[in-house]
Amino acid sequence: MKPTKPVIVFDVIETIFSLDALSRSFDRLDLPAHTKDLFFAQLLRDAFATSATGAYVPFVEMAKGTLHVLLVNLGVSAPASKIEQILPVFGQLDAHSDVQDALALAKSRDLEVLFFTNGSQKNTESLIARNALENLVDHVVSIDTFSQWKPYREVYLGAIAAVGGKPERSAMIAAHAWDTQGAMNAGMGAGWVRRQDSVFHPAMTPPDYSASDLTTLVDQVSVGLLNAA
């Protein structure tokens, strides 16, 4: 596949789709307000650690295992039944309020829009349809294709190659510092959007761009991509 346009790449969970629905599912179990953040942080920790050993565990299996440990630690009775209530929430996430305008801007600038996720392709495509974003997203690539979690360098290169792009004509947008770090390590540009964190992680390489909302960030990143093209 020959590259034609610059590629703007979006992380999916938290960057595009909010985890507020997950927070509500924990609220219904009368768990502390920070449970969602603790769960997702532990999920990523366990996934990254497993990947570092050379093993691969897909998102759903990793989420299920992390949930089990967390719920038991929090003293929740019958954790298996609670897990069956919580896991489907990942298919019911809503897009952040700035997503529609941001993606429309990217398309108006004639960029290829790629969603690159640590989740499954099927679930990501379902979330895109649920939020009526089908006409604004050109490609979806999951780490399942490579059996390795982001932020491993090769998965970014593989995702860009899969849609006919080149790292130097691509940029990653994410709400996580580790994700922009991974993209820059693969030779891509990067933009960080403030979601759950108020400041960028000071121990990581600063991204090329940052903003408090996705539309402003897409504007910055797209200008940079088009000027470099």
From TrEMBL:
Signal peptide: none annotated. The keyword Hydrolase applies. The keyword Hydrolase applies. Keywords: Hydrolase. It catalyses: an (S)-2-haloacid + H2O = a (2R)-2-hydroxycarboxylate + a halide anion + H(+). InterPro entries: 2-HAD (IPR006328), HAD-like_sf (IPR036412), HAD_sf (IPR023214), PGP-like_dom2 (IPR023198), S-2-haloacid_dehalogenase (IPR051540). One of its GO terms (molecular function) is (S)-2-haloacid dehalogenase activity. Pfam families: Hydrolase. Its EC number is 3.8.1.2. It comes from the Bacteria. Catalyzes the hydrolytic dehalogenation of small (S)-2-haloalkanoic acids to yield the corresponding (R)-2-hydroxyalkanoic acids. NCBIfam families: HAD_type_II (TIGR01428). Belongs to the HAD-like hydrolase superfamily. S-2-haloalkanoic acid dehalogenase family. This is (S)-2-haloacid dehalogenase.
